[in-house]
Amino acid sequence: DASGIVPSTMNFSLSIQRTLWGGTMLDVGYAGSLSRHLQWMRNMNAIPVGANFLASSQDPTTPGRPLPANFLRSTPGYGALNIIEMASSSNYHSLQVSARRRFARHFQFGAAWTWSKTMDFNDIDESAVTTLVPLRSWHYGLAGFDRTHVVKFNYLVDVPNLPVHGAFLRSVFHGWQLSGIASFVSGAPTGVGFSTTTAIDITGTADLGSRIFVTGPAVLPKDQRDFYRYFDASVFQLPAVGTLGNAGKTLLRGPGVNNWDTAIAKSFAIWETLRLQLRCEAFNAFNHTQFSAVGTGAQFNPATRQQTNAAFGSFTGARAPRTVQLAVRLMF
Q1: Is 23 helix (H, G, I), strand (E, B) or coil?
Q2: I need a labelling partner for 40 at 20 to 30 A (CA). Which of 78, 100, 120, 279 fits?
Q3: pTM here?
Q4: At residue 160, does pLDDT exceed 90?
C-alpha cells in the first residue's frame, strides 16, 4: 500500500497496590492496548462468489464446467494480485491481579491472575483476508492467542528442621527446600473446518471456501465430555451448494492447561560459603493428562452428506507426561 501509514499501538493501564498482612503486596489493575493500521493482505483480483455458476462463465469446450479461474477475474489473464495494506486492527483488555510475598520466615510466594480478551482480524502480519463477503463479520473475532484466564502460582518453602540430635541426623533431616509453579490456563479459541471425500464447488469461486453449517450449540457441559466427544459433532453439517455456511471465526475453545511443576532440594554445608545441593525436579508432577489438540476437521461425503472423519470431536494430542530431572549443584 503506497499510502505508507505507520502501524501504531496505544497502551494504557491503571493499577492500585496495597500492602496486606505478613508483608504481602496486592496489585489490582487494568491493562489494555489498541493497535491500528496493522498489516493484512488482500487479493484485488478475486473471483466473485457464485461466478462459476453463471451461464456466462461456462466453458463451451467442456460442458458443465466453468472456464479456468483466470478468465473470470476482474483483470482477466492474471492470477491473484495481492496488496499488503495497513488496514487491520486489534484490541486487548484485561483485569490483572497479583499478590507476592518476599522471602521471610522461610517462605515466599507469588500469585497472578489475568482475565482478558483479545480481538483481531488476523493474528500475524500479512495474513490473507477477503472482501468477497462482509469483512468484519467474516474475519473479526477472538485472536488465536486469546486466553480468557491465566492463573499462575509459585512458592518457595524452607522445610522446618526436625528436632533431631547428632551430626548425621541433622545432615539428613535439615536443609530441605520445597518449591514449585502451578499453571492454569484457558484453552485457545478454535474454529471448525471441513473437507469432502470428493471435490465439490460450494461457493462458486476458487478464492473463498465455505464455512461449515452449524445447527446448534457445539459446546458440551464438562460432565458430558469424554475422550471421544469433546464437543457435539452432530450439530455440524455440509453447507449447501451456493451458500457460505454460517459458522463464525471461532466456535470452541481447545483444552486448557492444568500443570504443576515441583522441586525438592537438599543442601549440605561443606565449608563456609561452599554448599552442595541435590535437586529433584518434577514437571507435570501429578502426571495429569493434559490434552493439547482436538479433531476440528469434519469430512463429508457429498453424496450422502454424512460426516466420515472418526477423529472429529475427539482428542488427538497430549502434552508431555511427568518428567523427572535430577541435578547436583555446587554453590560458592
Answers
A1: helix
A2: 78
A3: 0.86
A4: no
